[in-house]
Amino acid sequence: MKTSWLAIFAAATLSACAQAPPEQQIVNDAADALGGRVRVQAVRTIVMEGTGTNGNLGQDMTPDATGQAFTLAHYKRAIDVAGGRMRIEQTRTPTFTYFQGQPPQAQVLGIDGSVGYNVAPNGTATRVANAAANDRRADVYHHPLTIVRAAMDAATILSNPRTHDKERIVDAALANGLKFTLAIDIATKLPTRVVSMTDNLNLGDVAIETTFADYQDVNGLKLPAHLTTKTDRWTTADITVSKQLVDGDAGDLAAPQAATSAAPITGPPPAVVSAQEIAKGVWFLAGQSHHSVLVEFADHLTLIETPQHDTRALAVIAKAKELRPDKPLTTVVNTHHHFDHSGGIRAAVSEGLTVITQKANAAFYQDAISRSHSIVLDALAKNPKPLKIETVDEEMVLKDGAMTVNLYRITGSPHADTLLMAYFPKERLLVEADVFSPGSAVNPYTANLLENIKRHDLKIDRIVPIHGAIAPYAEFLKAVPAAAK
Fold first, then answer.
1. E-assigned strands of 39-121?
2. Which of 76, 359, 435, 454 is the most exposed place for a label (fewest CB within 10 A)?
3. Residue 12: per-residue pLDDT
4. Mind listing the pLDDT tens digit for each residue in 432-459?
């Protein structure tokens, strides 16, 4: 009897010693639920095909809107699990009036190690910026098989096991430097979501979260047929998988030679800012894709638009100060909230400028200025300043003895609800963004712009666009559909 109790005690002790720590147990449970540790580790490739939508992040009608999307008629995602390579092929069609037109757009997006690339419909491959490539490297692990397989690696550091609602959660730091949070369902043990952090120029430190649902049996594994990805609170992809293949032919996932041989892109190109005085006290600051306009008042300067990012915005601000060093630059007029037009607002705030914007943008900019930018320190993170903001409802007049500028909301625009245009009554100039881009093959918003011009009875000689070259008003009228004139 004595020997029997000792044996039982020894067995219990060995069992307790063999119990995995909580953080490892979460991963082990997930692997077992997906099909078993050995099966998960043996996976070489995954190919998914289906349909879905892409959200229009940062380009919707208002900052909080989520109604605009691209329909994905064809979606294919192939992953080389062990090699860390991935290629997405999709055809997307806008469900809204799009400034690039309505035809379907074929896209090929890939990542091969540190090289991210795009392939145009004509076969031309280009390398993407390092920041975008890093996001794609992380996206490889936004799938249950890839993240659980990586979490099982001996070099992965697991930490912070916890329980919240119906999930068990663990953090995973991979040997390649990427970090994730994995959550599994308490009942089924199947992965419910994976989260990674990244830097967004406008949103700062943001979470990219992919949730998994509708698990199906595929080649001895459980795989989700529904994957939804959010950036912060905005849905950026919602994919329904109709076909899944494990360890089948994934195709050639190597980056094209044109991409691998291209120099790494560490950030935006150096800013080129040209200055053209187009009327007394008015300068067109161009040189690249997004322009600005400098306006001289009696005792101060105002910019219309600090676009894109810190590099462009700070260069435009420097050019303004160079042109009129004897007058302070105090204000920036923001045409609308779209990310390519608001990406320089934090830089403008770091320089102490007051932001004038349509009133529907106020909460968005208050939030944007308060957000943490610790992953990548931007100008405002390095030089914190409070937000000074003035809002425009339907119109505002900026006027002194030297200059008059009328700001009008472009009402009813299919492009954005927060658009402002700037009219110079004496100079007969109209400054606008996106709704007419001279030289563009597609200008779908001209009819609405003409309605707004007529509503305010504006007398215009020249259009000064944020995109494109300055054009005579007659050129704009040619771009307006005949039925709208």
1. 45-55, 69-80, 85-94, 105-112, 115-119
2. 454
3. 39
4. 999 999 999 999 999 999 999 999 999 9
Q: How far apart are CA 313 and CA 302, in angstroms?
A: 13
Tell me the per-residue pLDDT of 125-184, one tens digit each, with 9 for 90 and over. Answer: 999 999 999 999 999 999 999 999 999 999 999 999 999 999 999 999 999 999 999 999
The pLDDT of residue 13 is: 39
Whole-number Å distance between alpha carbons of 161 and 169: 6
Task: For residue 326, report the phi and psi dihedrals to the nearest 5 degrees.
Answer: -85, -5
Strands, E assignment, 247-334: 274-279, 282-286, 292-296, 301-304, 329-333
- Among candidates 325, 370, 369, which has minimal Cα distance to 347? 369
Instruction: Please state, in angstroms and as integers, the Cα–Cα distance from residue 161 to each residue in 27, 320, 380, following that order.
Output: 10, 53, 35
Q: What is the pLDDT of residue 14?
A: 41
Cα radius of gyration rounded to whole Å, the chain: 27
Residue with tokens 């999930």: 167
Q: For residue 437, give the nearest of 310, 344, 341, 366 by alpha carbon.
A: 341
The Cα 245–Cα 379 span in angstroms is: 46
Place domain 21-260 in its CATH homologous superfamily.
Lipoprotein localisation LolA/LolB/LppX (2.50.20.10)
* pLDDT beneath 70, residues of the chain: 1-18
pTM over 0.90: yes
Task: Give the Cα separation of 351 and 213 in Å (integer).
Answer: 46
Residue boundaries of the structural domains of the chain: 21-260, 274-484
Phi, psi of 145 (to 5 degrees): -65, -45
Backbone angles phi, psi at 308, to 5 degrees: 70, -75
Torsion 108-112-116-119 (CA) sign? negative
Phi, psi values for residue 53, rounded to 5°:
-145, 155
Q: Give 274-484's CATH code, choosing from 6.10.140.1580, 2.30.30.90, 3.60.15.10, 3.40.50.300.
A: 3.60.15.10
